[in-house]
């Protein structure tokens, strides 16, 4: 996938419950990621550690950990890159929260309308304001 082969292993433990000074800590885990980049043949190894309030199987924790990045890639990255949110200077009152909500709404609408890319949807609606108004009436 994406020019690489990645293998993940996870180890979990509940033995530290009650010993950690961390609220709601139930499970600690270690994830090893081994990545082989197909074109270059180079390998990368990473180890990540975590603490969670979840008491579940190692497989489930690994799945949740992997899914975390989907949120980052599908929403936060789009807001940071496409909308240049980090440079937004709206800081007073609820302005920043309102603008983030509007950006989330726009991203969701563009995805619901099956545009392949967010910028493609933004360009379309920038030149078809009537369609935007029609969407808002529904």
Find the count of extended strands (DSSP E, 2+ residues). 3
In whole angstroms, the N-to-C terminal distance is 39 Å
Give the biggest beta sheet. 3 strands, antiparallel
Integer count of domains: 2
Q: List SSEs in N-to-C order.
A: EEEHHHH
Low-confidence stretches: none
Report on this structure:
The chain is of the alpha+beta class and 138 residues long. It folds into two domains: 1-57, no CATH class; 82-138, no CATH class. Helix content is 44%, strand content 22%. It has four helices and three strands; from the N terminus they run βββαααα. Strands 1-2-3 form a three-stranded antiparallel beta sheet, covered by helices on one side. Strand 2 (27-37) and strand 3 (43-52) form a beta hairpin. The protein is extended and about 60 Å long. The protein starts with a strand and ends with a helix. The model has no long low-confidence stretch (mean pLDDT 87).
């Amino acid at each position: 996938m994406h020019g690489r082969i990645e293998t993940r292993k996870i180890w979990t433990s509940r033995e530290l419950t009650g010993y950690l000074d961390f609220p709601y800590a139930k499970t600690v885990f270690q994830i090893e990621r081994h990545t082989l980049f197909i074109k270059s043949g180079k390998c990368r190894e990473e180890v990540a550690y975590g603490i969670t309030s979840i008491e579940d199987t190692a497989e489930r924790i690994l799945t949740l950990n992997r899914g975390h990045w989907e949120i980052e890639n599908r929403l936060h990255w789009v807001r940071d890159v496409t909308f240049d949110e980090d440079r937004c200077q709206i800081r007073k009152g609820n302005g920043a929260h309102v603008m983030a909500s509007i950006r989330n709404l726009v991203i969701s609408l563009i995805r619901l309308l099956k545009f392949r890319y967010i910028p493609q949807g933004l360009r379309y609606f920038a030149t078809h304001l009537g369609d935007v108004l029609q969407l808002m009436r529904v």
